[in-house]
Design goal:
Layout: E1 2-7, E2 12-16, H1 22-28, E3 46-51, E4 54-56, H2 66-70, E5 74-75, E6 79-81, E7 85-88, E8 102-113, E9 118-125, E10 136-139, E11 148-151, E12 161-167, H3 173-180, E13 187-194, E14 206-212, H4 216-229, E15 235-241, H5 249-253, E16 262-267, E17 279-280, H6 283-291, E18 298-304, H7 306-319, E19 327-331
Parallel strand pairs: 1-7, 14-15, 14-18, 15-16, 16-17, 18-19
Antiparallel strand pairs: 1-2, 3-5, 3-7, 4-6, 8-9, 8-13, 9-12, 10-11, 10-13
Bound molecules: flavin-adenine dinucleotide.
Length: 333
């Protein structure tokens, strides 16, 4: 059974009655529904319900402001249609999925520690792992409400292997469960792929990759994709971490690190007395110092915590006026 969703102003699509959310149903139907994080944080999938009934899954989702709530706004990533509905939203071509997302059962087959707080989780699922480097999947983790977004750290593959670099968040329900409760052999629902911050293979410019914390997952994936497509391409990587022990990019890249033209680790909390001779401070400041004269030649990709994303948006968009089409990112809410 499915529910018919009509877009005020034209357009209609069907959402299966067992679909998790309106957003995912719309994207699965090929609709360019505005969205970004898919987990209630960014607010980009706001819409108006004109008629019909929808259930709100997470009423306190931070993606809606108090003003939004007063005006009756809803988040498509937290809404489930209960029957046929009419909604108001403006779909756009750039929001259409590059690969149609699919729900699958993913079995945890291995887990490797990258640092004391980050591990790479390897899942196996039926069918090819179809995605573009830099995209993310939505995992339903036992004991945590809703879903958690994790970016793929490997390349798309026919074998159905999905890798995610996950950081243990103190007090976080999903990440803690992944580390402490989920065991090799367990099967979790995975819905993937999602996200716009993916690699643009056809672009000829140098590839600048900037990661904060567990943002190294998608950055490793894009670095590999960029080098595989054209080994002579210039790939520059900036990795922001607190201390030397928190760096993970080189470990994940292994021998492939040799293909990276420049790798700049930047530490924000390395003890003063240590023998660290590399860059210190915040990663966006290192990007500014190193690329100020080369910015025209670069395509920028970044992933990590919201304060890092905001600092990079400020640098690249407001101060350097890099065209937004050359900037691709995911905020890790
Ligand atoms: C696009 C994207 C990509 C990401 N990629 C990675 C990655 O590769 N590696 C990584 O370590 N982290 C990544 N994250 C962050 C990750 O999704 C989690 O936010 C993080 O692991 C903390 O989750 P937690 O359950 O431990 O913490 P919690 O504080 O328990 O949960 C925080 C997350 O759960 C959601 N949430 C909280 N309560 C509810 C509820 N009641 N109903 C529904 N949802 C709820 C929030 O929106 C938030 O996403 C990504 C986030 C986004 C948005």
């Amino acid at each position: 059974m499915s529910h018919r969703i009509e877009l005020e102003g034209g357009g209609v699509f069907d959402v299966s009655a067992d679909e998790d959310t309106l957003l995912r149903g719309a994207l699965r139907a090929g609709i360019g529904f505005p969205h970004d994080c898919s987990v209630g944080g960014c607010g980009n999938c706001r819409f108006d319900l004109v008629s019909g009934e929808m259930e709100t899954l997470w009423t306190a989702a931070p993606g809606l402001s108090e003003r939004d709530r007063r005006r009756g706004k809803r988040l498509a990533c937290q809404s489930r249609p209960l029957g046929d509905c009419v909604i108001r939203v403006r779909p756009a071509e750039e929001n259409r999925p590059v690969v149609a997302p699919l729900r699958r059962a993913a079995r945890l087959v291995a887990r490797t520690a990258i640092t004391s707080e980050m591990s790479e989780f390897v899942f196996a699922a039926e069918g090819p792992a179809a995605f573009v480097a830099g995209q993310y999947g939505l995992l339903r983790v036992p004991g945590a409400e809703g879903v958690r977004a994790y970016s793929m750290s490997n390349l798309p593959n026919e074998a159905g292997e999905w890798r995610f670099v996950v950081r243990r968040v103190p007090g976080g329900r999903g990440s803690t469960a992944l580390f402490d409760t989920v065991a090799v052999g367990d099967v979790l629902p995975l819905d993937a792929p999602y996200g716009h911050g993916h690699f643009r293979e056809a672009v000829e410019r140098d590839v600048v990759l900037i990661a904060g914390g567990s943002g190294i997952g998608p950055i490793v994936s894009i670095a590999r994709a960029a080098l595989r497509a054209r080994p002579e391409r210039r790939v520059l990587v900036f990795e922001g971490a607190r201390t030397r022990a928190d760096l993970g990019f080189a470990t994940l890249m292994g021998a492939d690190l040799a293909g990276v033209a420049d790798y700049v680790p930047v530490l924000s909390a390395e003890p003063e007395g240590s023998d660290w001779a590399g860059a210190r401070g915040f990663v966006h400041a290192a990007v500014e110092a190193r690329l100020v004269d080369r910015r025209e030649a670069c395509e920028f990709y970044f992933a990590g915590p919201p304060p890092m994303i905001e600092a990079l948006q400020d640098l690249l968009i407001l101060r350097w006026t890099v065209p937004v089409e050359r900037i691709h990112y995911d905020r890790f809410f």
